[in-house]
């Protein structure tokens, strides 16, 4: 092994000085490879950059022919350089021409050189290029030299990402870091949005790479690790992390990684090579991310997010940057995040926000429901989009197909601009239907209602011409508050909602928290299966003071007005009767307080637990109306976690067994003369709405943006013909095909827009 002149710290300082000099980009790059070759006693130093067409282009060299620069290229995976880029792993060889992947390029004049050391240039786990040193003598590059070259590559990665590097790129091409990318996700809410990326949890940008005092940097790292470990322990012991087991599991993973000696040792070794503590964290995480992205084991790939978040957390501590997220947005902002809760989303200025893109989540997750409620385009399961995005990148979000285009090409952008114009025409068409009653061609009046929960979406009642609010989710006020809302706060919310409803009916669902609806100020025990745990009505019955406060606020807000209350997650009739008696006792005390009672009071039950299907004959006589919560009901009927994309996507919500269960409820409601409303997410999608109408349902509650498409579908529908065809399908268990196929074919035959 040949010892480098001055060591890696000297080289890093020289490189830092060179990057600060007022040189042309190519001149600076040529000087950098000269410095690396001199410091490492190498005959050759070459720098290849990965272009957006997956070719590795020689950008600078010391020792090879200079006229090969910007001429010599290798495909990704071709030759030793292509192999390093593809595998994101260093490669050290004593006799490079003997390696089976060796690719000879005569124009470079590399014939005399045998020993070879190449390392990937990485940023956020992405390969940006390859840095190579070569010697004519046959020798083995040691671990210290490999480490030194990897450290140098960290600095090179930052140089590639700067704007002044653009002058080196040939016209008509770009580097891979900035190439357009398309992600195939799942649409959570329909629509198309064009805008600029805003990262919900922005990556910390490291600006200081070269350490002046390695001992001081190690001490800084040690203190930051201690601070981070304490903060993780505090989070694990906080109330909101006791509620959801999946959140707790993530933090347990953080704690495990934070105490991992191997990880800490690699950080210390990176500092020894001359990097600052923060640059060491970025360097180690780049290497780790590059390796894990190439793993096929899904568990290992899932842990990548944990490591990314942990590294970002440590960087924030090292740099002294607050973890508080800035909420300043550009116009046409598109929020990009791994995951987030509804409270996080509602903190942003919705007048500037156009769309939300998540790496995780499901269409029935509450952040997706809130996104639909406030009219945002939303797409989930866009894998790895956070690490591939930079703040300010152009982005297009297609909520119809689930496609997300990051840094789109001009032709794709032009195509979507046309789609946006077409979408605007459709919105204008739907707006023209506002005052048209939703009556089928054969004369059946369909009631179309909104799902709501925020005052911000209440004005849409007037804009869409909906018949009222079929579901007002009162829990959103509790989820976005930092402390328990007082009676006064609740009264103000409910009073304003009633005012904005303008006399149209509004159904207030009683508090439905717990499970995946985390309320930070309520402490609870961790549960293995929160969806089936201490939540919703169970929590309310165990905490009567919480229920009493809300009921009193609702009664006070509706004084002299009609009031409809919906009891969520009823498991058996006796639970509903307990709540009903509870509410009636509160009504009886109103005159003593000088408060006028509601002019009418209707109390309904939400059917979302399958066991209740076997007590409908007991329940329905006690209710004034019922509503079906399809999100939870379908989840429990299929034993498929609606927030788990691995299983949720395998079950069609309108498959024959689910439709027969829903029809059982509709038929029972008709028998007892009780109104029944579908207020889950099913009602807002045309094919699913067709399925619901086909089994006898005539009251549908949905997001505001769905009213227009569903009304158009209703106006073109012969309901009797639809029901005849679907009754045959449901009664004949041997019929081939799915309900979705039957409904789609029916719509095509009858020219119904779905």
Automatic annotation (TrEMBL):
Residues 24-170 form the GAF domain. Its cofactor is Mg(2+). It is found in: Cytoplasm. Its EC number is 2.7.3.9. It catalyses: L-histidyl-[protein] + phosphoenolpyruvate = N(pros)-phospho-L-histidyl-[protein] + pyruvate. It comes from the Bacteria. NCBIfam families: PTS_I_fam (TIGR01417). Pfam families: GAF, PEP-utilisers_N, PEP-utilizers, PEP-utilizers_C. This is phosphoenolpyruvate--protein phosphotransferase. Belongs to the PEP-utilizing enzyme family. One of its GO terms (molecular function) is metal ion binding. One of its GO terms (biological process) is phosphoenolpyruvate-dependent sugar phosphotransferase system. Keywords: Cytoplasm, Kinase, Magnesium, Metal-binding, Phosphotransferase system, Sugar transport, Transferase, Transport. Its main location: cytoplasm. GO terms for cellular component: cytoplasm. Signal peptide: none annotated. InterPro entries: GAF, GAF-like_dom_sf, PEP-util_enz_mobile_dom, PEP-utilizing_PTS_enzyme, PEP_util_C, Phosphohistidine_dom_sf, PTS_EI-like, PTS_EIN. It is an enzyme of class 2 (transferase).
């Amino acid at each position: 092994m040949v010892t480098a002149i001055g060591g890696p710290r000297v080289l890093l300082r020289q490189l830092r000085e060179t990057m600060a000099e007022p040189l042309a980009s190519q001149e600076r790059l040529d000087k950098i490879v000269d410095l690396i070759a001199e410091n490492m006693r190498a005959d050759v130093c070459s720098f290849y950059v990965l272009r957006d067409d997956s070719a590795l282009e020689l950008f600078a060299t010391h020792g090879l022919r200079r006229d090969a620069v910007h001429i010599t290229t290798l495909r990704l995976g071709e030759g030793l350089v292509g192999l390093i880029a593809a595998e994101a792993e260093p490669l050290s060889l004593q006799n490079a021409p003997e390696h089976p992947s060796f690719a000879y390029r005569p124009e470079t004049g590399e014939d005399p050189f045998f020993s070879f050391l190449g390392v990937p240039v990485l940023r956020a786990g992405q390969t940006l290029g390859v840095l190579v040193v070569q010697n004519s003598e046959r020798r083995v590059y040691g671990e210290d030299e490999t480490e030194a070259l990897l450290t140098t590559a960290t600095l090179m990665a930052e140089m590639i990402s700067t704007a002044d590097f653009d002058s080196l790129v040939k016209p008509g091409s770009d580097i891979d870091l900035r190439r357009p990318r398309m992600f195939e996700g799942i649409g959570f809410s329909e629509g198309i949005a064009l805008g600029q990326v805003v990262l919900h949890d922005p990556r910390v940008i490291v600006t200081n790479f070269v350490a002046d005092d390695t001992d001081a940097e190690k001490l800084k790292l040690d203190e930051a690790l201690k601070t981070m470990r304490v903060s993780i322990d505090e989070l694990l012991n906080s109330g909101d992390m006791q509620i959801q087991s999946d959140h707790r599991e993530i933090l347990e993973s953080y704690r495990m990684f934070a105490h991992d000696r191997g990880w800490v040792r690699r950080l210390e070794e990176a500092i020894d090579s001359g990097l600052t503590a923060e640059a060491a964290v970025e360097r180690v995480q780049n290497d780790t991310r590059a390796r894990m992205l190439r793993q096929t084991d899904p568990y290992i790939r899932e842990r990548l997010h944990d490591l990314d978040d942990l590294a970002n957390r440590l960087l924030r501590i090292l740099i002294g940057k607050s973890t508080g997220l800035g909420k300043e947005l550009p116009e046409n902002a598109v929020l990009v995040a791994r995951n987030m809760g509804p409270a996080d989303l509602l903190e942003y200025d919705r007048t500037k926000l156009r769309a939300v893109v998540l790496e995780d989540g499901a269409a029935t997750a509450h952040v997706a429901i809130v996104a639909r409620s406030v009219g945002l385009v939303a797409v989930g399961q866009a894998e790895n989009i956070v690490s591939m995005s930079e703040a300010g990148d152009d982005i297009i979000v297609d909520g119809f197909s689930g496609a997300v285009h990051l840094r789109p090409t001009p032709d794709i952008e032009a195509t979507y601009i046309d789609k946006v114009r077409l979408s605007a025409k459709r919105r204008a068409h739907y707006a023209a239907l506002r005052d048209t009653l939703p009556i089928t061609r054969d004369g059946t009046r369909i009631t179309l209602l909104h799902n709501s929960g925020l005052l911000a979406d209440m004005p849409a009642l007037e804009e869409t011409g909906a018949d009222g609010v079929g579901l007002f989710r009162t829990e959103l006020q509790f989820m976005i508050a930092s402390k328990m809302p007082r009676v006064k706060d609740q009264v103000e919310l409910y009073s304003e909602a009633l005012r904005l409803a303008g006399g149209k009916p509004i159904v207030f669902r009683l508090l439905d928290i717990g499970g995946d609806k985390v309320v930070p100020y309520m402490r609870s025990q961790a549960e293995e299966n929160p969806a089936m745990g201490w939540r919703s009505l169970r929590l309310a019955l165990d905490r009567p003071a919480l229920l009493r406060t809300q009921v009193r606020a609702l009664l006070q807000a509706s004084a002299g007005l009609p009031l409809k209350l919906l009891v969520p997650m009823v498991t058996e009739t006796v639970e509903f009767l307990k709540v009903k008696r509870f509410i009636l006792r509160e009504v009886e005390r109103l005159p003593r307080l000088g408060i006028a009672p509601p002019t009418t009071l209707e109390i309904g039950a939400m059917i979302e637990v399958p066991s209740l299907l076997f007590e409908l004959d007991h329940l329905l006589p006690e209710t004034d109306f019922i509503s079906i919560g399809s999100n939870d009901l379908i989840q429990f009927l299929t034993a498929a976690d609606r927030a788990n994309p691995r299983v949720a996507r395998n079950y069609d919500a309108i498959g024959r067994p689910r439709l027969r269960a829903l029809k059982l409820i509709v038929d029972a409601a008709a028998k007892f003369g009780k109104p029944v409303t579908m207020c889950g997410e099913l009602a807002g999608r045309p094919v699913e709405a067709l399925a619901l109408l086909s089994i006898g349902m005539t009251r549908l509650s949905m997001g505001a943006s769905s009213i227009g498409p569903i009304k158009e579908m209703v106006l073109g529908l012969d309901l009797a013909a639809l029901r005849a065809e679907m009754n045959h399908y449901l009664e004949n268990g041997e019929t081939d095909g799915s309900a979705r196929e039957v409904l789609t074919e029916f719509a095509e035959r009858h020219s119904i827009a779905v």
